[in-house]
């Protein structure tokens, strides 16, 4: 049996509600606040991400969704053998994240459906989790052979040519294999972006939220979520691993079968930041991961007093400003080096590698793995799909014809 929390841990509660009338009439309209906050229209004058591959380590991506068709390469399934033979994966969470990163819309001029942050980028789908409604969920979360699927997925994505790896996933404990895989990715120039986690509303007496992995590893861009006021969303983990934040409330996205969803969580915020990282890598393909992280942090808006706090890191990402910051860094030739990491049983420093200011975590270990999550996990796990705090399905757009 695996150690408690050694693999993917619950980060929220997945709730589904009935489709809301009227939403279907304006899916793209539902994205306008995010497009404005991230200054995407201005960023797209510089690049839309062409030539970049973003690996989505998740529950799988539907390559036939009209807003993603032609942009998705289905890679290896590291969960194979957990589900009974013939089971079709639901692929909701992975499709949702992929659409926020590289959705290109559909219809005349691609003006319908979901537009991602880097609409010209390609997606490599790497399945490393099962969603909790899949029949193999318990087998996947208890069988020892699946313990290091995240580490294996990272290495696979790097070897398959990924420039950015999106990990809208969360777990309680780190493993040596994951640390080594992250060092390997950084040494190859691959940018890693991960969710800070959704346990923020469980904080007690102002204490910090638990550290989630892989987000808390040095060298990984850890992303928190903001609400509509660009303040920390109540569910978003607040701790010194957080580098930057992005919108994470009422985020429109695509789902399998040409459906659309709206939800909130650090998963969505992470996908948006991965999209900006893809824009930077498209414009400056040789830029090292620490410099990409530096560009994201240095250009952030809505910066907290003093320039940094554990709620939103260095502030809310801005695609246009990040590209400008990257341009200033582009003359540098330093390359990222994998750094020596601590024993996984010791507290982990929450800073970043490279030129980013190191913010040291509190000495005490902070754990908030709730009893209900543990029970659902069957000994320590829950599907990464529950990185959502809430999602609602959006009715399919009516009367549309594909371009």
Précis, in short:
The chain is 24% helix and 15% strand.
Spans where pLDDT lies below 50 across 5 or more residues: 1-25, 334-390, 395-403
Q: Do you know the CATH topology?
A: Rossmann fold
The proportion of residues forming helix, as a percent range, comes to 10-25%
* Total domains: 1
Mean pLDDT: 81
Main β-sheet description = 7 strands, parallel
Describe this structure in words.
Belongs to the peptidase S8 family. Pfam families: Peptidase_S8. InterPro entries: Peptidase_S8/S53_dom, Peptidase_S8/S53_dom_sf, Peptidase_S8_Asp-AS, Peptidase_S8_subtilisin-like, Peptidase_S8_subtilisin-rel. The chain has 403 residues and is α/β, with parallel strands linked by helices. It has a single domain, classed as Rossmann fold (3-Layer(aba) Sandwich), CATH 3.40.50. 24% of the residues lie in helices and 15% in strands. The chain has 10 helices and 12 strands. The strands form 3 sheets. The chain has a 7-stranded parallel sheet, sandwiched between helices. A 3-stranded antiparallel sheet has the order 10-11-12. The chain has a two-stranded antiparallel sheet with strand order 3-4. A hairpin with a 5-residue loop joins strand 3 and strand 4 (112-115).
């Amino acid at each position: 049996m695996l150690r408690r929390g050694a693999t993917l841990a619950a980060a929220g509660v997945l709730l589904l509600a009935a489709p809301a009338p009227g939403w279907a009439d304006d899916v793209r309209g539902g994205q306008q606040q995010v497009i404005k906050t991230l200054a995407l229209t201005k960023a797209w004058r510089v690049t839309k991400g062409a030539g970049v591959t973003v690996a989505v380590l998740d529950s799988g991506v539907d390559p036939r969704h009209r807003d993603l068709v032609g942009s998705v390469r289905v890679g290896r399934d590291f969960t194979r053998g957990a589900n009974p033979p013939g089971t079709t994966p639901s692929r909701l969470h992975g499709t949702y994240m992929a659409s926020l990163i590289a959705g290109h819309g559909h219809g005349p001029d691609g003006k319908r459906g979901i537009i991602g942050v880097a609409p010209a980028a390609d997606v490599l789908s790497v399945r490393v989790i099962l969603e909790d409604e899949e029949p193999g969920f318990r087998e996947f979360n208890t069988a020892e052979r699946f313990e290091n699927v995240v580490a294996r997925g990272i290495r696979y994505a790097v070897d398959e040519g990924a420039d950015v790896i999106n990990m809208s996933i969360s777990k309680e404990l780190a493993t040596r294999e994951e640390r080594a895989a992250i060092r390997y990715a950084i040494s190859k120039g691959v940018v890693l972006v991960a969710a800070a986690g959704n346990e923020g509303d469980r904080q007690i007496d102002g204490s910090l939220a638990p550290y989630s992995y892989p987000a808390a590893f040095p060298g990984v861009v850890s992303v928190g979520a903001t609400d509509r006021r660009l303040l920390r969303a109540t569910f978003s983990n607040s701790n010194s691993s957080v580098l930057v934040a992005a919108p994470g409330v009422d985020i429109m996205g695509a789902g399998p079968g040409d459906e659309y969803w709206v939800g909130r969580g650090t998963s969505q915020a992470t996908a948006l930041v991965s999209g900006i990282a893809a824009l930077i890598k498209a414009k400056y393909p040789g830029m090292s991961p620490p410099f990409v992280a530096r560009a994201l942090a240095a250009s952030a808006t809505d910066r907290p007093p003093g320039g940094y706090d554990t709620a939103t890191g260095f502030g809310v990402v801005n695609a246009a400003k990040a590209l400008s910051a990257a341009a200033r860094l582009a003359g540098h030739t330093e390359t990222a080096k994998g750094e020596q990491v601590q024993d996984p049983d010791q507290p982990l420093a929450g800073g970043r590698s490279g030129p980013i200011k190191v913010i040291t975590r509190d000495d005490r270990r902070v754990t908030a793995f709730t009893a209900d999550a543990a029970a659902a996990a069957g000994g320590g796990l829950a599907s990464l799909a529950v990185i959502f705090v809430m999602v609602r399905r959006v009715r399919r757009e009516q009367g549309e014809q594909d371009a």
